[in-house]
Write a structure and sequence with these properties.
globular, 5 helices, single chain, five-stranded parallel β-sheet, binds flavin mononucleotide
């Protein structure tokens, strides 16, 4: 069974809700999932998981929140398989700054998949995009696994 660490930062709940939808989708696909809300408690050891998923909102003109930067430093390495999602709002700087924390994190971790970008709450019309992305993560990991073993 593939194991995922989902580490996410959320202030007003959108990124947390997105993380929960991803968790449910991965669990439905047979994966085991550990959730870690960044900034609460010790940072789990990424080496205990097959892959890591990082979620962040975007702040202050396209910035990555400080607690997410601290998390990245605490992890202190670039694990092989990192997938990234984020929530944001196009009202703050349009497409250019939309979810740019997620875009930067995906680049930093050399993520094999495009980061998932969600506008505000994932509930409603965007829910299907979250589910499809999480299924894509699972498919990607399974494909790699088949190639490696
Ligand atoms: C002061 C402020 C600045 C923001 N700046 C951006 C931004 O530059 N880019 C973006 O995509 N979203 C921006 N947002 C929107 C948040 O990222 C968005 O509401 C997000 O869903 C919040 O996540 P959370 O509910 O998990 O805390 C900003 C929000 C606030 C309040």
């Amino acid at each position: 069974m593939v194991s995922f660490l989902i580490a996410y930062a959320s202030w007003s709940g959108n990124t947390a809700e997105t993380a929960e939808l991803i968790e449910q989708t991965l669990a439905a696909g047979g994966a085991s999932v550990k959730m870690h809300r960044i900034g609460t408690g010790p940072v789990p050891d990424y080496r205990e998981f097959d892959a890591m998923i990082v979620g962040s909102f975007t702040w202050d003109q396209g910035s990555t929140p400080d607690e997410v930067k601290d998390f990245v430093l605490d992890v202190g390495a670039k694990p092989d398989h990192v997938y990234v999602f984020g929530t944001g709002d196009t009202q703050f700087g349009g497409d250019e700054l939309f979810c740019s924390a997620a875009v930067k994190l995906a680049r930093f971790y050399n993520s094999a998949l495009e980061p998932l970008k969600i506008e505000q709450s994932p509930r409603g019309a965007q829910e299907i995009r979250v589910t499809a992305w999480a299924e894509g993560v699972l498919d990607h990991w399974r494909h790699l696994h088949e190639l490696t073993y």
